[in-house]
Amino acid sequence: MDRIDLPEQELAVRSINNMMATGKFPHALLLTGKNGFGPLKLAMNIAKVLLSQGNEQDNKQQVLKVENASHPDLHLFFPINTTKTVKSKPRKTDFINDWREFTKISLYQDHSDWFQYIGIENKQGIINVQQARDVVDSLKLKPYEAQAKVAIIWGAEFMNREAGNKLLKVIEEPPANSYLILMSESKEALLSTILSRCQEIPLTPLSNSFITDHLVAHYKLDNIKADMIAEQSEHSLSKAIRLVQQTDDDADHEKRFIDWVRYAFLVRKNTAAMQDLMEWSTQLSREKKGYQRSFLLFCQQFFRQAYLNNLKLYDLVFYKPKDTDFSFDKFSKFIHHKNYPLIMKNLEDCIFHLDRNVNQKALLTDMSLQLTKLIHLKD
């Protein structure tokens, strides 16, 4: 395998293949963009090329080992924390089997999916200084099977400052035949000294057609349903997959959503509604983080459908509330071009901070208070 073939990321792949062909591939590469755009899949494909170079006779075996995360010259790092079974000083070796099973599901999953998978959804995942030491040590080793060593860090923004400073040394003085691939959804969270020393390759959002084809092939959806989900996915395959999986919760999410917007509407006229809104926020804060995230994604979908309905783009409106007492058409009139982007940003910010373990009650309360203002914003 001498070049990467990943059509969904054509621009990034073209740049990387050119660097490889001209012998200018960097020792430290930073892939930026949402996990749903496929940075992990791209990183694994890069590793396949780097670890099979000069070993053409055993090429297929090298590639298979990379795919199984079992290649001795491939070192994988990811955010972790203590769990019920790993009670102190977590190391990546404590989770490597979980990682292998997790990545078999999909290479497009989010950090929150990983945290839920290993049972730390109510904690902050972290890449600590010990993991950074392990990165440095792994790249200093002599290659075992390949002619190079590759370390991949998924979720580099979860490194604390101490870990970042430790990693900086191997970026500035890379051992021979060593490559470091970092991935980050929030590059601004990285140390500026790391950013300035890495070659950045930004990933582009996925096309709706790619997402549709993936959902049809892997989730047995018909084209119409897959197209609808692709339209809502914000060009992220991880979000599309989550939308497929959340349909069983829609009835519960709808009731909770309708209660929420009703309280937000009533606050100006009925002071008792503020107490109801605060209680609503408290109840949601007691749910598991995975449920909270699923609900917030449902809210985004509901507001998007209401906005499209207000614009009279009926061909794109597929959601019909199950609550017959709730007038979707009347509600849609309150979601317009002035408040819609602000409402969506309010939800997006909430999801972002939820994934970073901000106090859930305070976070959801603030989100609700913001909605009381935005829902009354005049067109």
What's the helical proportion of residues?
Answer: 40-55%
CATH class of the largest domain: Alpha Beta
Radius of gyration: 23 Å
What's the end-to-end separation, in Å?
56 Å
CATH fold group of the largest domain: Rossmann fold
Short description:
This protein has 17 helices and 5 strands. With 379 residues, it is of the alpha/beta class.
Q: Could you give the topology of this structure?
A:
Elements: H1 10-21, E1 28-32, H2 39-52, H3 59-67, E2 74-77, H4 96-105, H5 111-118, H6 129-140, E3 149-154, H7 161-172, E4 178-184, H8 192-197, E5 199-202, H9 208-219, H10 223-232, H11 237-245, H12 250-266, H13 272-285, H14 289-310, H15 328-332, H16 340-354, H17 360-374
Parallel strand pairs: 1-4, 1-5, 2-3, 3-4
Give an overview of the whole structure.
This protein has 379 residues and is α/β, with parallel strands linked by helices. The chain folds into 2 domains: 7-202, P-loop containing nucleotide triphosphate hydrolases (Rossmann fold, 3-Layer(aba) Sandwich), CATH 3.40.50; 221-374, no CATH class. It is built from 17 helices and 5 strands. It has a 5-stranded parallel beta sheet with strand order 2-3-4-1-5, sandwiched between helices. Helix 12 packs across helix 17 (360-374). The radius of gyration is 23 Å and the shape is globular. The model has no long low-confidence stretch (mean pLDDT 91).
Summary keywords:
379 residues, alpha/beta, Rossmann fold, 2 domains, five-stranded parallel β-sheet
